[in-house]
Design brief:
InterPro entries: Galactose-bd-like_sf, NADH-UbQ_OxRdtase-assoc_prot30, NDUFAF1, PIG-P. With 288 residues, the chain is an alpha+beta fold. The chain contains 5 helices and 16 strands.
Length: 288
């Protein structure tokens, strides 16, 4: 049986089994929370890719609000499983790099939306309270726990980010709140994915493919590293077994050279007549 990696527990993915949720099932739960609620012009939407991944896209504008701007899609339900600090150390977020629509952005005044460059920075927001409606129908602002990540490569390969719970910083209306309590993952009520201007540093059309969001058990990373060093793998039942050690190129060549020298020495000892050995000054060698 081939070795299996210690994989995180899926929460959202293209092809998920219970208790995880597929993006297709989750799609109808997302809603736009853009800067239009404050009079801005940014827009966002969520769709599915042909592979069933979540496509977060839209247009980030900084001109209407004088350099500010944000576009986000909010998932208005809790995570499919309850996570606690005792058993879980954080999340794994897998996203695809910006597609061609972002690569055409130019720095300077020609950038669509008024920013200095194309959108490459995103925010994963976790909410520990449900929104409270104001008399005007808008939601009251509350503490949000943010994790920022940058998808700056032009490659289409999936990039994985591994934020620990401590990496989610408490903010209020985008401003750090160092006095706020640390994130308690058991209290997560909903989450969102956001693109924001970062004070005019980015704007324009954006597209981010979210492949999956998973939970990482506490100790999995350390255990995986230790097992790799010791040459141990796990089967499907969690049984550990020793796998053959793999040699790198330098060690393999050294072993090959050493074996060759031993073979040549043995051949000389076994096959060359004694008279020839004495003629070249070899007076002692092991008895044949």
């Amino acid at each position: 049986m081939p070795p299996l990696s210690l994989a995180p527990t899926p929460l959202f993915s293209p092809h998920a089994s219970s208790p995880a949720i597929t993006w297709r099932t989750a799609l109808s739960t997302f809603k736009a929370v853009d800067d239009r609620v404050r009079g801005g012009s940014s827009t966002s939407q969520t769709n599915l890719t042909a592979s069933g991944q979540l496509l977060f896209s839209g247009f980030l504008d900084t001109t209407t609000l004088g350099g500010a701007g944000f576009a986000s899609q909010q998932y208005g339900q809790s995570l499919p499983i309850t996570l606690d600090k005792a058993g879980w150390q954080g999340l794994e977020v897998k996203v695809c790099s910006p597609p061609p629509s972002q690569k055409g952005g130019k720095e300077g005044n020609d950038q669509p939306g008024g920013g200095k460059g194309p959108v490459t920075s995103y925010v994963l927001n976790l909410y520990t309270t449900m929104p409270v409606k104001r008399p005007d129908g808008r939601n009251e602002s509350s503490t949000v726990y943010e994790y920022n990540f940058n998808v700056s490569t032009s490659s289409a390969e999936v990039s994985a980010f591994h934020p620990a719970w401590s990496d989610f910083e408490p903010t209020y209306r985008g401003r750090p709140q160092p006095s706020a309590p640390k994130l308690d993952p058991e209290e997560i009520k909903m989450w969102s994915i956001m693109a924001r201007s970062d004070f005019g540093s980015q704007s324009g059309p954006f597209e981010l493919v979210v492949d999956s969001i998973s939970a990482v058990k506490k100790g999995d990373s350390k255990k995986a590293s230790l097992m790799t060093k010791r040459g141990i793998s796990e089967d499907e039942e969690g049984n550990e077994w020793l796998r053959p050690a793999r040699l790198n190129g330098a060690k393999g060549f050294a072993l090959y050279a050493f074996s060759t020298v031993l073979l040549v020495a043995w051949s000389v000892w076994a096959l060359v007549p004694e008279a020839w050995l004495k003629a070249v000054g070899v007076d002692w060698y092991p008895s044949r």
